């Protein structure tokens, strides 16, 4: 097991009716910037619940944050924070809204262009406090201190991390899942599955505890995903497990003492930056490619994954790995994902752009930098 440091200060309020508790968590008179997206919260009743709970606060609304939140939009919110003396931020939405709000929180207190915070070029020294009401289980952003921000102008999508942007608390009411379209459930399922693999499919024999925890998350997703795709008939406990799996997949609890990969995510972010694809869609294409191309480096963990998650115990090493990859692809297809870049009209030119970008940035990604730009090229060709 590797040495590790663990810290997670986020308070979770989980379950039906928890949105009402905003009233107890945010003091009367607080100037709150309430951030949200394109309006789903106005159709599913979340907006009314939030506004009722904030009736004693001074609420400034900032809607219209897009999926894959854009720098230009967030800069407008930063301006509002400065001119309206905002005390705290409340993100009401999915990962895009929460990430965007983290950027607003740190960017409002940053001297200079907040884009410098992205990709680790500058460090946040102060941030406005923030809290969240989650409406889409997927990213784990409600209980971590990372954010992924897009800049459409330059076709970039970069990550920043700062402990200053851990939410103070997050409200997780599984009933918000009822209104999700299947497309977003599929994105969420694949994202959580990928987060778990990024922290699991690396080095063998690091820790039995983390391995079994990760396998439990994967098995839970495989069990509940087919039922969650029955739009309009979702069961509360399935929604609750879906939500808890998302939070547990990326809040640091399965990363203690293990190597992490994240190559699939870094490649996926480029596909979104260049083609606007949903985050989950990119992961469903790239992950099977990573498994295949990195099969020697990841051999022991791929065999363990195949056996413990999919019950694959017969055949040669390569036959078992092939079967594990096939089962993963079938699972992603079963929730409605396409598996090839060509399904989205993406080909040679994009592969060249991504590989060039990684070379220019000097990026060797994956655990211990094993995913070189040459491997990235092979991975993308495998899923063309
Ligand atoms: O904008 P509205 O109208 O609210 O609609 C949203 C949006 O169109 C809709 N939606 C959300 N909750 C809903 C709902 N529709 C009906 N009922 C509800 N209850 O869903 C659409 C997608 O929302 P979005 O927030 O973009 O989805 P997601 O949570 O998948 O977030 C994706 C973003 O998070 C980043 C991704 O890269 C991407 O930018 N990630 C953040 C991470 C983190 N901070 O730790 C890690 C992840 O790996 C990921 O990279
Ligand atoms: Zn993700």
Q: How much is the radius of gyration in Å?
A: 20 Å
**How many beta-strand elements?**
8
**Average pLDDT value?**
98
Q: Regions with pLDDT < 50 over 5+ consecutive residues?
A: none
Number of helices: 14
Question: Concise description?
Answer:
This protein has helices spanning 22-25, 40-43, 46-53, 71-83, 95-107, 182-198, 208-228, 236-249, 263-275, 279-293, 299-310, 317-334, 348-361, 373-382; strands at residues 11-14, 31-35, 58-62, 88-93, 130-134, 146-151, 156-161, 169-172.
What does this protein look like?
With 384 residues, the chain is of the alpha/beta class. 46% of the residues lie in helices and 11% in strands. The protein has 14 helices and eight strands. It has helices spanning 22-25, 40-43, 46-53, 71-83, 95-107, 182-198, 208-228, 236-249, 263-275, 279-293, 299-310, 317-334, 348-361, 373-382, and strands at 11-14, 31-35, 58-62, 88-93, 130-134, 146-151, 156-161, 169-172. The protein has a six-stranded parallel beta sheet, with helices on both faces. Strands 6-7 form a two-stranded antiparallel ribbon. Bound molecules: 5,6-dihydroxy-NADP and zinc ion.
